[in-house]
Amino acid sequence: MVPNTLGGMATRVGIVGASGFTGAELLRLIAGHPDLEVVVATGDSQAGTAVADLYPSLASAYGHLTFTPYVEGVADDHGLDLVFCGLPHGASQEIVPGLLDGNRVVVDLGADFRLKDAGLYPTWYGHEHTVPHLLAESVYGLPELFRAELAEAKLVATPGCYVTTATLALAPLLAAGLVAPTGIVVDAASGVSGAGRPPKPTNAFNTVDENFVAYGMLDHRHTPEIEQNLAGVAGADVQVLFTPHLAPMNRGILATCYARPTAATSTDELRQVLHAAYDAEPFVEVRHEPPSTKATLGSNAVHVTAYADDRTGWVVALAALDNLTKGASGGALQSANVALGLPEAAGLPVAGLYP
Amino acid sequence: MVPNTLGGMATRVGIVGASGFTGAELLRLIAGHPDLEVVVATGDSQAGTAVADLYPSLASAYGHLTFTPYVEGVADDHGLDLVFCGLPHGASQEIVPGLLDGNRVVVDLGADFRLKDAGLYPTWYGHEHTVPHLLAESVYGLPELFRAELAEAKLVATPGCYVTTATLALAPLLAAGLVAPTGIVVDAASGVSGAGRPPKPTNAFNTVDENFVAYGMLDHRHTPEIEQNLAGVAGADVQVLFTPHLAPMNRGILATCYARPTAATSTDELRQVLHAAYDAEPFVEVRHEPPSTKATLGSNAVHVTAYADDRTGWVVALAALDNLTKGASGGALQSANVALGLPEAAGLPVAGLYP
Amino acid sequence: MVPNTLGGMATRVGIVGASGFTGAELLRLIAGHPDLEVVVATGDSQAGTAVADLYPSLASAYGHLTFTPYVEGVADDHGLDLVFCGLPHGASQEIVPGLLDGNRVVVDLGADFRLKDAGLYPTWYGHEHTVPHLLAESVYGLPELFRAELAEAKLVATPGCYVTTATLALAPLLAAGLVAPTGIVVDAASGVSGAGRPPKPTNAFNTVDENFVAYGMLDHRHTPEIEQNLAGVAGADVQVLFTPHLAPMNRGILATCYARPTAATSTDELRQVLHAAYDAEPFVEVRHEPPSTKATLGSNAVHVTAYADDRTGWVVALAALDNLTKGASGGALQSANVALGLPEAAGLPVAGLYP
Amino acid sequence: MVPNTLGGMATRVGIVGASGFTGAELLRLIAGHPDLEVVVATGDSQAGTAVADLYPSLASAYGHLTFTPYVEGVADDHGLDLVFCGLPHGASQEIVPGLLDGNRVVVDLGADFRLKDAGLYPTWYGHEHTVPHLLAESVYGLPELFRAELAEAKLVATPGCYVTTATLALAPLLAAGLVAPTGIVVDAASGVSGAGRPPKPTNAFNTVDENFVAYGMLDHRHTPEIEQNLAGVAGADVQVLFTPHLAPMNRGILATCYARPTAATSTDELRQVLHAAYDAEPFVEVRHEPPSTKATLGSNAVHVTAYADDRTGWVVALAALDNLTKGASGGALQSANVALGLPEAAGLPVAGLYP
Known about the structure:
Low-confidence stretches of chain A: 1-7
Radius of gyration of chain A: 20 Å
Number of strands of chain A: 13
Structural class of chain A: alpha/beta
Largest sheet of chain A: 7 strands, mixed
CATH superfamily of the largest domain in chain A: Dihydrodipicolinate Reductase, domain 2
Strand order of the largest sheet of chain A: 8-9-7-10-13-12-11
Oligomer: homotetramer
Number of helices of chain A: 12
Number of domains of chain A: 2
CATH class of the largest domain in chain A: Alpha Beta
């Protein structure tokens, strides 16, 4: 172990599957974290490549680091205190059991430990879950809902990016019984980084630039996860139609959510409920204007608000965040901080990049 | 009159309020129209400026043309057969009565002649209508719904850009009684050109680039116009909650519309209804994939489709178009062609700019 | 043959290698051409795919057309009058000899017939030319320099996109002896479509968006072609250092060219020379402001200007165009029009898409 | 004074002219600085506006802060240790003399104290300098060239954004005598934030998006500043032709610089000189690939490289940075850290935002 900059001992961090965008974002954030040190970054497809060559943005911070192939025992070999897994869905459940250890925290960024009902995996992900007993053990990495549980967690399941957005917009309203649990529409738009690093026709510049399009009609995999979270706070089954869109920008998610009020309500009442839920949160801002994705760029912030429409009888709740920061790697780091007993906001930018 | 390129006589065209984006788009389209010739383009704020200096994109086509101040009698002075008005809302009703003449067609691109119920103007536009009798006379410039009426029209009210999009997505489904007329949500995103040419904080590059944001929450002015159109085809009052968003792109609108089916339906049934409505239309394509704004860039095309979701009981109808072409100037020119007895597609690009 | 819309017989067109961006742009332009009809579009990698599925922007114009595999004899089988080849460099020279026929015009969009000196191919393209005798026969597809030769051409070599830009900026100045033929710097930036359709890391949205970067340092293949053109007008060897850059936009090239004056000169003198060269050209505009790529978007226009700097003794010449239109498919169509005796501007938009 | 988070006393910071983009960037960076606390932010045009309303990206970090009007004595009234001035050119020289005080550091971000020769101001800025004696006293805020002087500085003149870029690309090569001091061309492109916050036609989204254009032909004000810096290291007069371009992106500058070698040189030799100059620098990376602006987004990094072209006899040196970070507010903060004896990299992100 090397001493950290505060004179104590740095927490030794490994990132498995570090060559994707969530890996790069973890590396960016950890470069500014006073207590963490990345000692190994695996990436099978990029093994042997210098981090600085794949991501020149990290050249000054990680000039020494090279992606290595994943090998069993990597966590023990390197004495890791904390492991982030940024593997494709389905791959994490193969290796996480081997990484878990009494003195180590594992934070998964994939979907493998998010759904509590193992029976949902065949339906939404096309495969049986191979270690269903870990679904009960894993803690869902949304500190706004599960802070106490995270403090004891050894395995953290980081939420999907759209899921964090929609959940934080709607959860307080459902928890307070202000909106009905069915008939909910979540209409959201994301920047292109949500599609990952490997080039494909759908993330080619000329496909995406100057384009706005819906995708994943009716069956996007984040649907059951949104429903699971909202059912948890509502104490009732929740049904959501989720329509994601792709917007021509690097980062950012905005969710515009439509729900039916259970009784006459008002914009003021909705916002009071949001304020009560979030005013003590380090990263959630209740706004009086429609939130914009750009206001959260590069920071761990989430901006939320809500409106009640008397004329048509709809409640509209909105939330915006950076899909790679709060929506993925920032959220993962926030949960890791809680699980490790570090200051929750350590290494997490509170101010966004603007303009 | 000067002879046109086909050896006949060109239709003499004037554009009042030509210096805005809809004016520039009209000039672009008319440059490719075999029968029309622009003989005057007014623009008070740009009077004296060469068209080629404000819009270098038009330099080769209109090297000779200069914006002039609007003067009363401009239509008679120039012997205009066709006048497009691209003035701000409220300004058209001041001058249109003076432009109307038995042998002339006036196509307004603003909101002043769109709503049939004069009582809606104070509510949504903040002023009384000064010539309400013309609301009955004007024909709504959506050939897909009002082709026959347009053939006789002297005054055409070009629909709002969002309105064309939402109307073409939903109208056949409401006309067929497949979806309920209330509880409809129209969630749409537009490129920035919809905000017009004058610089303001909300259309500055650094505000908009890499940003996605909702605006006009609950009270956007296109709401009553969507409701009017859909009520017309549904034969019943229609209630719509409309949420526009701003996407970081120059052009394009996508409307994602949510409605409740009146009875069990299917994606197949919805699309058959769309095909029946649109297969003979020159500019509406029924797609089997979610439509993308980019597929319509610079053309007069509209792409539509629909889905039925068994799980949540929602119908989702989507439409995409170029807000300046089919959503404004192209739609206006299409209506003008119909009103003048010219080929409906003359001067209107059928293929979009891609990539 | 089918009759065209003017009552005559349409020219039968085939596009070999039609599934790339230059193929799509040809299809877009020909959709608006009164005399041409595309009867076959080959694309081996997309064989069997409907044009409308790969390019929904072409759905209304080419709903019936499907990409077919290339087969020998395609031109004879379909009775083609005109063939465009949009194949990768090196592939055209394999098939063009078989396509040539006394009554047919072949317009190649690749590099295989651009360089007159066969000895340059091994150096710049890495392979010997297999049909060097055709290099003398082919006519370079830049009507501004070779209009008379194009009128007799059976084989046309469409210039590279950067080459058209730099050539049109500098040629009149070199022809007039105003600038020296060596020490020239061409610093240019292009939109991403120049990299073609296949997805790769360098044209992925997240790589390119919000990025500006140089590439092809010192050895870009358009260098010898620029030098060939300028040497032709200068009557002397020309040496150019060419540095291309990638800008985060779909289309457009701006070339900023630096040269040394041969004697004291002035901005006025430079522009007079440009005006003399271009005022009769249908697509070249001499501007008094720095040209912008956006002013040429989607049109066949080229905007040029020049400045003389007394203080440092540099001449700066600039040109802007749309790399897919005038820089590729539009330039190719313009040459085809000349070669076929059609109106030179037929099917070529003179007004750009703005905003 | 309030204690800072490390238990010591925070340095009290004021920002004069804080409502512009450089002010917002200072606020972003200082939010992550362990030793600085912003106690006052003036902005006459935004006086009374909450920082969080003008810049929602700063809501979580500065929820309490409101822009105030500038008043004389502000630095004394608030006990400021450090003042940043983000005023328009010409305005700083009016107030800086009053801000200077034995125990305070003033860091100006405008041009008023950059040029050592007061006689250059009338030529390039159109006005006489009113406090020319301060030009000798001010230290140019480029730690890579003036670190020792900055350690003693009371008044720091932050370089222009293009100037930092071009200077860091060329200075080591001129200092080593590898390239000639005249005939230099600096061809550069910037993101739009360089144009500042107030909306104007030239920074409107629809003007800039999908556009690339040169501006400031021959006479951009950063020219004499580049020449001053390079003359300082070359020990000879330097002459530069500088051509800025506007690229459709928020942030980033790339300078591509052309110079003539004084003797035969090589890419290897050039890079060795760059490595010798920069390997000990905290924020300058010598790259083996062309630097990209995006690799520096949001960080204080500068990426440089150089090439020698045997064929044409040119040296090409390139540098990239974020114009608002290292090119303005980050550079200013780096200089302030040096002047205050704080760790030079405090508060300055070393890793960029990617993708």
